[in-house]
Amino acid sequence: MKVRFTKMHGLGNDFVVLDGVRQSLALTPDQLRQLADRRFGIGCDQILLVEAPTRPDADFRYRIFNADGGEVEQCGNGARCFVRFVREQGLTAQREIVVETMKGLIRPREGEDGNITVDMGVPRFAPDAIPFISPVDAVVQPLMVGDDEVMISVVSMGNPHAVQLVADVDTAPVASQGLLIENHLRFPQRVNAGFMQVVDRHAVRLRVFERGAGETLACGTGACAAAVAGIRRGLLDSPVRVATRGGELSIEWAGDEQPVFMSGPATTVFTGEIDL
Ligand SMILES: N[C@@H](CCC[C@H](N)C(=O)O)C(=O)O
What we know:
Helices cover 16% and strands 40% of the residues. By secondary structure, the protein is of the alpha+beta class. The mean pLDDT is 97. The ligand N[C@@H](CCC[C@H](N)C(=O)O)C(=O)O binds next to strand 4, helix 2 and helix 4. Its EC number is 5.1.1.7.
């Protein structure tokens, strides 16, 4: 089966984007893993599938698959690439689109400067919403990671995040703790593990060990979760500049029950066709 694709990235978090509106696609987890494989396939952190919406109030449906082949709820950098893709491919001329995801609607908008801002929805913190097994609903909670007790803030941006503060992201235990946190028994659907260094009240540095993909150069939902966690802990004020290894995102959040806005670039790298 031949599949046309576009390779894109948002700050180095890279995607294979597939047009499921004009080509009929029903890919198996094995085929998805093959697309994501950096040696035997195209290579990416996530595969993004653009489809016709299933509800009347949306323009498109956006499906996200991690490099391990699992379908997930949300991807922030992918949302910006999604808008760039549907506009470049002539699927829409609208600058603002309403996009159906597994966890509701998001509203990305391409600005005149080419940057894209996404209304990522309202963050949730209740343990059940993550899901996170915990008897208490606290802003900061202890988690045993191997022999270490780590203080985390749990945030759902549609997908699950556990954010911890570190003194320096360059020496943070991302490699040693990432997989342990991702697969921790208290996160029944696994989790994205964020390591955040506060620079000042409007700036952080961030690394994220992503569920189903390992450490990526940037994570959009991870940036939203980190900024929101820092604001709730009284360490940050909106807007927050989030510096990742792939570049910078701007995150705005006005507080409880308000949506998070994420702004940043989206880049097309090349297009092609692969025989699966
Ligand atoms: N790279 C993403 C998040 C992709 C999904 C994540 N790995 C998960 O499993 O929830 C982003 O930019 O948000």
